[in-house]
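for the recovery benchmark. tokens below, seq after
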């Protein structure tokens, strides 16, 4: 598990196996040699335009070859990528450019209008909507970024106080990609289907692990129709499918999918949000020949832990153990290490811990702490966990998600699991709503499976049968579908605001 600069991965494979397919987008197969050439010419063009080592380059590009080339060229030029959702509005884009003191913004024609309005509001940031405008035949940069150099500035959602820019070094990203490759046993023979946006950390990670391992990335512009996904699994001989609960829920709507052989598919991964137990069991029945890895991570460290597939039945609800080469433990509010069954904050130790929040020492201080050795960083996750006797981790709640009702602490996930036990439930999100008498009232927002009509009172009774009284929702609201944010996650903030 090497920790070299991630900018070296693509040139390395272009030299060792130039004709191997690196990326597939639609009907276009791009070899490592072709991708390396495109990347080198754009990296040279970026340097000609004044991009320097350590600069931040905003990338507002949808999934496609241009996005892959832009990511790799920025890294090769010694600059740091700053992914921006291509559907973002100009005011958010301008805010990110301003906060990061970006040197440049790259976009495509589809996002050019919003990008143009954004750069008009930020003096001195050039914007290019065509990579062809930048590519150059000049000699590409030969300076290899150091492990400590900034490689990526990835922004959190920023529900309070605006978005925070998470800083990751070349060494940190190199380490975490190597660790993921190790436990997934990923190699050049693999083909990974990525439906997730490269502007989203989970999607970006799959590009990086494929380029490091020599695997082929089959890149789609989005989730799309379930039939399209299955066609790709079959025709492109996909061996790995990363997903989030939304992806798997969509696939499970296809009748007869469990009878499709899919002989090449050997693993599935889930992150971003936990799969509820009933959905997890449905996924395993639908893809009986593929191993399912449940995983947990944060933008601040990319990936924290994974559950080996052979432990799914042994430890239901667990998110596993620390990824290879790292360590985790649980602390109370005074910094004491807690034992099995005790609930406290998850602490993460390893080279993948972020360098900090961009120009925000106050926000960094409580999250990045001094480690056991001089100069070492550990991450205070701000998430509440417990462990079992063997050290396997169980997510309880994000600290900020804990609902305080009647003076008691209500973990939303426990309420969600109780509601998910109803076979007609498709999705559920439990949030706290300010209440004069209770402090916070527990509200459950639920959507039904197709053709099912849910009874809110019956769902409340189900909760009352399984949970303590203070955890039973005061309201159960039925939706056609739950609202989502730009990353495809359920928008809990919007639900909490009514």
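predicted aa per position
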């Amino acid at each position: 598990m090497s920790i070299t600069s991630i900018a070296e991965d693509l040139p390395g494979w272009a030299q060792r196996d130039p004709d191997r397919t690196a990326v597939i987008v639609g009907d276009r197969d791009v070899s490592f040699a072709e991708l390396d050439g495109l990347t080198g010419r754009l990296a040279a063009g970026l340097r000609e335009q004044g991009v320097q080592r350590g600069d931040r380059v905003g990338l507002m590009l949808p999934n496609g070859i241009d996005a892959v080339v832009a990511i790799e060229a920025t890294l090769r030029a010694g600059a740091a990528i700053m992914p921006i959702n291509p559907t973002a509005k100009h005011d958010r884009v301008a805010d990110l450019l301003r906060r990061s003191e970006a040197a440049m913004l790259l976009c495509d024609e589809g996002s050019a209008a919003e990008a143009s309005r954004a750069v008009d509001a930020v003096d001195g940031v050039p914007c290019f909507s065509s990579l062809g405008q930048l590519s150059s035949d000049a000699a590409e940069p030969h300076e290899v970024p150091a492990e400590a150099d900034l490689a990526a500035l990835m922004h959190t959602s920023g529900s309070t106080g605006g978005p925070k820019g998470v800083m990751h070094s070349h060494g940190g990203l190199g380490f975490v990609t190597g660790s993921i490759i190790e436990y997934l046993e990923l190699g050049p023979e693999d083909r990974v289907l990525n439906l997730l946006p490269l502007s989203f950390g989970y999607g970006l990670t799959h590009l990086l692990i494929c380029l490091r391992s020599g695997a082929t990335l089959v890149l789609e512009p989005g989730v799309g129709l379930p039939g399209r996904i299955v066609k790709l699994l079959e025709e492109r001989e996909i061996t790995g499918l990363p997903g989030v609960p939304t992806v798997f829920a969509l696939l499970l709507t296809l009748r007869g999918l469990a009878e499709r052989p899919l002989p090449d598919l050997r693993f599935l991964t889930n992150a971003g949000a936990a799969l509820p137990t009933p959905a997890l069991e449905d996924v395993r029945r639908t893809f009986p020949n593929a191993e399912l890895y449940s995983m947990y991570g944060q933008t601040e460290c990319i990936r924290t832990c994974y559950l080996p597939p052979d432990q799914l039945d042994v430890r239901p609800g667990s998110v596993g153990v620390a990824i290879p080469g790292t360590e985790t433990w649980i602390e109370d509010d005074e910094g004491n290490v807690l034992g099995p069954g005790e609930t406290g904050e998850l602490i993460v130790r390893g080279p993948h811990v972020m360098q900090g929040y961009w120009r925000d020492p106050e926000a960094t201080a409580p999250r990045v702490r001094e480690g056991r050795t001089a100069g070492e960083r550990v991450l205070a996750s701000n998430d509440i966990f417990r462990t079992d006797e063997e050290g396997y981790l169980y997510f309880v709640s994000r600290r900020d998600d804990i609902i305080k009702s009647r003076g008691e602490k209500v973990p939303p996930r426990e309420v969600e699991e109780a509601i998910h036990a109803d076979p007609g439930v498709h999705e559920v999100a439990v949030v706290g709503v300010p209440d004069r008498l209770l402090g916070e009232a527990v509200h459950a927002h639920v959507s039904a499976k197709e053709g099912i009509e849910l009874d809110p009172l019956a769902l409340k009774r189900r909760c009352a049968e399984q949970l303590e009284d203070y955890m039973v929702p005061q309201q159960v609201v039925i939706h056609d579908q739950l609202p989502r944010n730009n990353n495809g996650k359920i928008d809990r903030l919007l639900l909490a605001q009514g």
